[in-house]
Write a structure and sequence with these properties.
Layout lengths: L1 H13 L3 H6 L2 H14 L1 H20 L5 H26 L2 H11 L2 H43 L5
């Protein structure tokens, strides 16, 4: 983990990021990288890309050697940091990132990191169920309201 963290900092130092140049300092980017490490973003990215590899291998009916796969995963994770760190520094100041780091070190912050994937999945399921069950009702109400107003829907 620490080796990857050092690689991330190296990427930040060597990457010409317009978002970093326009909005925030290198110190903010370093803090954002610390926050990402604390939030377990490497694991999140790793899981996403492992799923991508699995789908690719299933479709192509081929399997990469584990060493090659790991090298690609590391490269893809670094690329993801290159893309996402400037977004964090665009929206959060260095002081705000410090406050997020402090929060994620608390028991509630640690729990938040732990339950967020399940929480997100449950919310998505709830939204899908709502869309399936209630959206047709709302669409009908909208159509009726539009008819009453005399405006035609396309």
């Amino acid at each position: 983990m620490h080796k990857l963290f050092l690689n991330i900092l190296l990427v930040i130092l060597l990457s010409p990021s317009t978002a970093l140049a326009q909005n925030d300092s290198l110190a903010s980017a370093k803090k954002a990288a610390q926050l990402f490490e604390l939030m377990g973003m490497e694991k999140v990215f790793d899981n996403v890309f492992k799923n991508v590899f699995d789908m690719q291998e299933n479709e192509s009916k081929t399997k990469l050697p584990e060493e090659t796969r790991k090298a690609f995963l590391d490269e893809m994770i670094l690329s993801m940091y290159r893309v996402t760190l400037p977004v964090f520094t665009k929206y959060f100041t260095e002081l705000e990132i410090d406050e997020l780091i402090a929060f994620y070190k608390t028991p509630v912050g640690k729990k938040s990191i732990q339950v967020t994937p399940s929480l997100t999945a449950d919310i998505q399921i709830g939204i899908f169920k709502w869309v399936e069950k209630d959206m047709p009702i709302f669409q009908k109400k909208i159509e009726e309201a539009a008819k009453k107003s005399g405006k035609k829907l396309d």
